[in-house]
Fold each of these.
Amino acid sequence: MGAAELRNYEREVYQFQLRIGIAGVAVVIAFLMLAARFVYLQVVQHDIYRAKAEDNRISIVPVPPNRGLIVDRNGLVLARNYSGYTLEIFPRRTRSVEGTIDELAELIEITPRDRRLFRKLVAETRNAESLPIRTRLSDEEVAKFAANRYRFEGVEIKGRLFRQYPYGEVASHALGYMGRIDQADQARLEEDGIDANYRGTDYIGKAGVEASYQHELHGTTGFEHVEIDAAGRGIRTLSRTPSQPGNNVALTLDMTLQRVAENAFGERRGALVAIEPESGGVLAFVSKPGFDPNLFVDGIDPQNWAELNNSIDKPLNNRAIAGMYPPGSTFKPFMALAALELGKRTPRSTIHDPGYFDFGGRRFRDSRPGGNGVVDLYKSIVMSSDTYYYQVANDLGIDAIAGFMKHFGFGERTGIDLQGEASGVLPSPEWKMKRFKRPEQQKWYAGETISIGIGQGYNAYTPIQLAQAMATLADGGAMYRPHLIAYVDDPRTGERRPVEPELVHRVPVRRDHLEFVKRALAGVNKEGTAARSFANAPYTSGGKTGTAQLIGIKQNEKYEESKVAERLRDHSLFIAFAPLENPKIALSVVVENGGFGARAAAPIARTVLDYYLLGKLPQGMQQPTPEDETDEEGD
Amino acid sequence: MELARLPLRRLASRLTEGIDSTLLVLIVSLSMLGLAALFSASYENPARVVNQFVSLGVALVAMWIVAQVPPQTLMRFALPAYVIGLVLLLAVALAGDVVNGARRWLHIGVTRFQPSEMMKLAVPMMLAWYFHRRESGLRLSDFAVGALILIVPVAFIVRQPDLGTAALVAAAGFYVLFFAGLSWKVLGAVVGLLAASVFPLWGMLHDYQRKRILTLLDPTQDPLGAGYHIIQSTIAVGSGGISGKGWLNGTQAHLEFIPERHTDFILAVYSEEFGLIGNGVLLVLYALLVARGLMIAANAATVFARLLAVAIALMFFTYAFVNMGMVSGILPVVGVPLPFLSYGGTALLTLFIGAGILMSVQRHRKLVQT
């Protein structure tokens, strides 16, 4: 080691030790600060805190608020609360949870299902104060337990409010359901910084309006100062900050219309969305099959849950906003409008329709063998000519189609006030590029454009998108955001906050083009593919049938419905609006595997329009009454 | 007789070899106080005390093993430990379990693991190793590299989000930079910059973190939510008075007013029952522990050893200070356990391994004063 280096090294060590000295001083100062703080708390303020600790025999108990009601547009109650007694175990105050349950079982019926549910709750909840072992106790059971209460430490009867849906399955996908606050919910509440307002609350909206308007419905948690004994049991309430009930939420739905629509489906699967074109308010919102939201209110049992989840019919899928269907021929009016706007067709130009269109060595067949002869634009919609739109699609090209359809909301979420909406697929070369991985799949082929023209190919839209597009067309190009809520009521102040219609944008189309297409849609219901369904209708209406193919049909093969398995049969679609002048309602109907659009979907639309415009109830249906209220099925 | 006694004595001397008795006595005293407080806090769940006792045993063994390893050998683990830690942090960010809204845990087979915990030691080790290699002629650029080594894992941990652990890792790394000879000018500039960036940083915090800081200023604002911890723990501390309410007699703890009373808030239970006197004892024990650590660092033989030792000694200080400050209501609630007292095996293991490293440094200290 050279002398210079040595000196350097020495200086370094000196530096280091100097800094250690500084650190030592800092440590001492910091600890002195703590010591000062302890002296302040434990000597200077000791009396205050001793008094507070004494007072702390006073516990702060949260008082959960009453959840707001959900009513339909006419004030009919769709979701309400009823109070029931539950038997609750405080796990931290019992010696042995299992032992306590066994003892309780001698007094009150506790089924293996109750035990399973309880164990599930224990596993899923963290830091719970108490958990229910039995819900909905009878008065007799309450009395029995009260008499024996001294035997059970850490077990109490609690009065709780439970959600109830008087109409059962009706409108279940709009209303949604409630469920226990799980860890994911808890994390979200903490993230939003509102977990304190959920102390004492066990249930939260999981789907539908119950979920999307959770914060409106919930209310504000109050708290009570309760004097407690050494075991932590409440002796008396000293003061009380009452909870404030949640807001009541009124839907735009008309419950009678909703029931008419759901009845019209019968046992068939599918979806229907009816919209008021001038506001975007949703009048009917059907997704079949539905489910009974009452099953969820005190924790759904594993058997019902498995049934709902594993059913091939997927009753928990909200088809109206998350089901994606090829629109089939219901796409044609929008294609016609595109052709007019972009100057590729005029109302007068005609084509000859031989029943097929040849492109690139492939033959695209018309659903009508032999074709429709000479076809103009009006007839192309009324008779639903495939050949006509094969050619339109080819003339427009995929970019122009995608660019135009965007205006009507195809392939984009409508932004309805529900969670879990799908965006659908508006096919374009860019979309294909993103969707697929391998280069040969990413390329857009001109042949693929042809079937886009008749609503097949990669086209896939949700029923709410179809209804919104129909409403936009019917309302002269003004597109409103669909919404399920008409207004929110504050039950304390009586203040009413209406939901204002939200204009998304105006589609830039010429008035005469729009009127032409609407006339053609009226022709469909008068003399075209839906004429039979709308025979003798005392009001004017426009509509378009659609049939969405689920399996590819080989070029020279005829499609024989009877041979195709039920689940592979075509979806039946229909979009409509009425009356023709100044439309009051626009809707889309999808009947899964219903076959031709004119056969399954159009009659449902007729039934719905008849009720909405004429007040005419279908045979055998009465004004709705809530299901028997005492009917409390569960197990 | 002689023959029989000899192997025993040899075993005993082998077992105590390399163990610094001062450190050991301090650590064991702290741990015993912890067990006493834990016993009081978990009257409804005595299994916790047994668990903690077992963890202590495991941690002691780990400490003993580490104490046998010379610092030169430890140095070889610095880079791999750091790299593995970073990879695991990345894995957590991509595929970690979310618990209470934070992504901190990684599933390994049947057990879960918090990679941020190992970074508490891996980061200072890595930095000490880096500055050791750069020993001759440190330049500003070396400190820039050092800062980078520090910032990357801290950023990951902030993102989880786990502000408490991030602050601890950042502090440990900062100590190494400072004792490697970071110039006062640069330090001043950085501190100034940090002060200036308080506002943008505020925007990056999660809502619940902001709320914690705001309720620190006025806990009564939110008596059911975030303020509850602070209100109740200050009451516990204050009501303890000079001599405390006596062991097992704390009402705050026993009436379940103190949340997390086994872990981060165990000091509230301790102070309520042992009072100002108990707190004084605790502060003296910690001060002696830190002092012993700093002494070991001052006599360390190599750059690596002294930087690592000083970082560990001040880490003990930081944990103790932040936790005690938080429970007594002068620092925000950030989720830092009280060293050697809080319930939790992982944290104990880290602390004891740290102590083991200190012992190893002490054993291989320079023997000749230069």
Note: Chain B has one domain: 20-363.
Amino acid sequence: MPISGLVVTLSDDEQQSTEAMAALEADDRITVGDRQKNRLPIVAETGSIDEGHRLVRDELPDIEGVVFVDVVTVKFEKGRC
Amino acid sequence: MDRRDFLKVSAMAAATTAATRMAYGQEAGALDEQVADRAADTVEWNKAPCRFCGVGCTLQVGVDNGRVVAVSGDRKAEVNQGTACVKGYHAGSILYGADRLQQPLKREGDDFVEITWNEAIGIIADRIEEDPEKFAFYGSGQWTIPEGYAVQKFMRGGVRSNHLDPNARLCMASAVTGFLAVYGVDEPAGTYTDLDECDVLINWGNNPAEMHPVLFSRVVDRRAKGEEVEIIDMGLRRSRTTDHSQHFIRFNPHTDIAIALGIAHLLIENDTYDKDFVENHCNFRGNTDPLTLQGEEISFEKFKEEIQKYTPEHVEELSGVDADTIRMLGDRFGDPDLRITSLWCMGMNQHTRGTAVNSLVHGIHLLSGHFGRPGDSPTSLTGQPSACGTVREVGTLAHALPGGRVIANEEERGHIEEHWNVPEGRIPSEPGYHTVKMWENFCTPEDEGGDVNTIWVQVTNPGQSMPNLNNLFYPARELEEKFLIVSDVYPTATTKYADLVLPSAMWVEKNGVYGNSERRTQQWFKMVEPPGDAREDLWQVLAVARELYDRGFETMRDADGEFLFRIEDDDGNEVPVHNYNRFDEVNVDRALYEEYRPLTHYKQKNVAPYDVLVEKRGLRWPVVETEDGVWEETEFRFAEFDDPFVDEGAEFQFYHSPTGDDRALIWFHPQEPPAEEPDDDYPFWLSTGRVLEHWHTGTMTMRIPQLRRAMPQAYVEVHRKDARRLKISDGETVKLETRRGSMELPVWINGRGRVPEGTLFVPFFDERMMINDLTLSDHDPHSKQPDYKKCAARLQKIGRREGEG
């Protein structure tokens, strides 16, 4: 079960970034950390590597108010690459 | 706390640290908490360029009690503007791997024994004295400029061997030959400023989102500011760059040449080429038989005739890219109101026709007039921090001399001999062996013509990064007469096979000067001591030179009988810096850099004075002093509005034109097949490359726990349909094989990059899975750079051949 540490860059538009924060907090797979200006650290726990990729590549960038997603760390279960 | 919770907590800690640093740069909020507590009083911050890629981010390095405790992006740095990538943030940790080499080691049978530096220096001097012409030096674009200059002088002027080449031969040699073929002088006309100004960014076989992330974020951040920039990703597989691109254009391997020809065809066909620019500033060039880098003059009519057949439909047949997409590219280049920047790196360079495709991409920019305005530029990137500064400018290539000179030119050899005060004829007139040839000779018995017997390797890891290792590295280890010397900071795949291992200082354990991909020269000072008895690569070279001088090795003397590397204090007294406890008495870096600097003026590559660089976050050459004493850099070469060497009224002036008339050359090169293609026995394309977390062979980044955990091992990316057909599941270990070797490694279906059906991708960072046992040594005829991006391979479940189910 991959666990990823990510940094989400939020939009400078306050309303959009607030909505993005709310969307992220509502996602069971995501733990939201302390926002640092427009950078938001999050941890994503997904059921598979593929799901993790979809999340990072497609789902997170598709959220209105999310400008960029940086992957800081990805931790896999033993035996997975 | 269970393991899962622990992983989540540590992932959040890493993400928070990164987010804080990204948000606050080097402010206290950017530091790890434990460091922040101490930061105000005890941490001393100084600038240094990042140790990793060629982007050249400036970092602020925090030192406390003799140890690097924090690294932060430098807010004053134009390149990175306070940011750094995941590797850069962890750069401090590269100094503190548990297994740093700390003592010279000599091989005795299967073991290494510790020896003294005096013994080590003596052994190297013995090897050189015995056979100077069979001695070779293999370095890299990680040498600092003073280190590279010292080795240049040591080899050409002292040992009198031109067998000096860097790993940059494997990395950007085709970019060099491309620039030389087109402009007559190396290195990009534009700078990173083009990324801030372009309307369209085309990545040609390039994945900057992972390989040059800070640079790529400069482009993506423009969108956050409401600017529009269209990103076109052309490549063999989808990557993280694709995720940010409006267009992904997947082409058949080796057909980027056809695409460039198709664009040129459309510019002519649609009459959208820039007639004024072409008429006033360009000549046309075609190939000769045999091939030469100079080629032969052809007319515009002949050029038109040659590209006539590269219609969008024909290019579609060749490349697999649909004709409408080729037309879209033609339209972009045909639109004079757009600003277009092309960006490339290994995809175009690691190519058996690298010079051709480099020349063609320059050509479509020239033909369309998308050149010489901010945002209109063909620009190559480098993978190493000083591939430009040390390799291309200092000239640590087998055929080169400092400042853009070449060994084959007698007059240019004379410049250097005069500058070094050595007798005429001191520098041998024959160029040395390029990388592949050097290692081929090292792997060939002497009685069969293998005339390289000793190689001294510094700041690189050829035992992992050379292609086709089964031919170009391992065989030498079976030959008694061959002797391998390796200076490095950690045990590597190369030190494992060495006869002599020298422990080196690295990065901020020494002074340094690097030159990045945009002609920016950056300086830094030593901040911490190296561990144990590790010493600077520069000192190692000077110590061997002095040992030879003391033994009476005649060519370690100049024309007046003085030591070639006489370093003086402010009063003109010699300081014996070869004596290590006196090495820090003077700034040897400054002395060598200032000796080198006048040599950069010959081809208008004027680098800034050392003392000016001390105050700056780098300056982009040519740097010239204005009447009021300010040293001004140049953003756009060959363009009158910015380049001080362009004549007034010229608008554009290619003042090192190969044709001597201030014009750049637009080349025609035909599409030709690759060196190896998939067939019934080896049905897959295999491509190799890098990943975000690890830098090149991983010797540094695999020792950073956060990066190692993030990407712990190599893998083979496989398309889901291929995996299904071969009954291979995600994570399963498979056998990957080419005509040169085989290996076992785990499968990542789709993987981080998404390969198309019939293609495999393997990163080369993992020394436990040596993909370069399998790669090709076939190389470009001009640049001699091998092709790591495409060869034929097969994949099989362990114990079963492909197709057997």
Note: Chain B has 26 helices and 31 strands.
